[in-house]
Structures are given as C-alpha cells and as structure tokens.
Design goal:
The radius of gyration is 21 Å and the shape is globular. It has helices at residues 25-34, 72-77, 123-137, 150-154, 212-220, and strands at 21-22, 37-43, 49-59, 62-68, 83-97, 105-119, 156-162, 165-171, 189-192. By secondary structure, it is of the alpha+beta class.
C-alpha cells in the first residue's frame, strides 16, 4: 500500500466496468467520510449470510463499526481470529433516465472493503472510536455531550476493520441511449439527487442556544452528496 493508494487485490478488482474503479485513498476516503450508514456483511456461525446496516466512522486507514454487545457480528469478532467481513458504503448522486427501459441507470459512488474485523477492547482505543462515531455524524459533537458511563460502555461494542483491501467505484455519466433510440419521442437526461441539513428542532429540555458546531453545520449546509 502506497501513501496515496491502497493495494489492488483480486477481491478489490471489479470484473465489470473496471474503468470506474479506483484505489486512490483520497477518492475512497471522501466517499467514506460523506456517508452515515454502512452495510456489514458476514457469514453467521450457522452458515447463514447476514448483511446489517449500521453506523461507522473512519480514523486514518481504519474503520470503526458500532454495535451492541449482544449482536452476532460483535460477539464473533471478539474471538482471537476475528470475523471475516465485507463492508460497503454507497452514495447515489443522480437518476439516469434513458429512452429505453434497459439503459436506465444511476450515478453513484461506492466503496467495498474486505478484511477481518476485530472487537475493540483497549479502553483508550475504544474512547477514540466512540468519539469518532459521534463526530462522524456532526463534527465536534463529542465535546458537547456527556461521555458514556460504565453501564453504557458495557452495552456498547465496536469492531475495527483496517483498510487493507478496499476500492471505490464511480459512475458519473449522462444518459447513454442506443443510436437507434435517439429519435424516439421520450425524455432522457439526468435527475440530480442531493441531501442536506435542515433547521435543527430543539427538544423541550434544550434551554441552551444552538451550539456552534450545529450552527456551522447548518450554515455549511445545502447538499452533502
């Protein structure tokens, strides 16, 4: 693995549309830092494939994935051998509408990471991971809330996945109609999709002014992807 790119492996090299793939760290980390939910895939002890949506955060070349101490992947990852997983993140940027049903598509950015996840047990690393999970949603939020107490920590588990086998794939093209369909009387084009932050709605117990980290988020605001 170089300073600017992750190593290519058979598992991170797509078999279709290879030109859309990248192993560049900057591109991969930008996708990871722009989404809130990942999908964690693994094989349960009974052989059943499982995919779970959950929150995550990136710290350098490492992902931390949140869960409870009672969840199956967290229990399995606590073993010394860890848990083989496949983690995915996807951002959808636009709907691509064509004159034929077959050629419809979406513009997207996605990341797929393979590896062995391990439960975080070191208290210092766990503190870093939990702060990162809170700050991934709203930067600076971990400094503005009560830290987890002993009971809450006992009910919370975090697994670590090093970004050793990871790649990104992107589609950012327009409508791609067959030449024979170009004169058909149907609309074709791209419909951009955006997401952004709305106006914060305080809870009845919130007697303090809107904190700076939330104000900055809203002002920065419009589209995040």
């Amino acid at each position: 693995m170089s300073d600017t790119a992750y190593a290519r492996t058979p598992r991170t090299t797509p078999t279709r549309y290879k030109d859309r793939a990248t192993w560049e760290k900057e591109a991969i980390q930008q996708v990871l830092d722009s989404a809130w939910i990942c999908h964690l895939g693994f094989v349960a002890p009974d052989g059943t494939p499982v995919v779970l949506p959950t929150i995550y955060a990136r710290v350098g070349d490492r992902l931390y994935v949140h869960g409870s101490t009672g969840s199956r992947p967290l229990r399995a990852a606590g073993a010394d051998r860890g848990l083989p997983v496949c983690l995915t993140v996807t951002l959808v940027d636009a709907l691509v509408l064509t004159k034929s049903a077959f050629n419809h598509s979406v513009n997207f950015r996605s990341v797929v990471a393979h590896g062995t996840a391990h439960q975080v047990t070191d208290p210092a690393e766990l503190a870093v991971a939990l702060d990162a999970l809170v700050d991934h949603a709203v930067p600076g939020r971990s400094r503005e809330v009560r830290p987890a107490n002993a009971k809450e920590l006992a009910a919370t588990a975090v697994i670590r996945l090093d970004l050793d086998e990871v790649s990104a794939k992107t589609r950012a093209d327009g409508a791609d109609d067959d030449e024979a369909d170009l004169e058909l009387p149907y609309w074709a084009g791209v419909v951009p999709l955006t997401s952004g932050y709305g106006t914060p709605e305080p809870h009845a117990s919130s007697a303090v002014p809107l904190p700076a980290h939330l104000g900055d988020l809203v002002r920065a605001g419009g589209a995040t992807c």
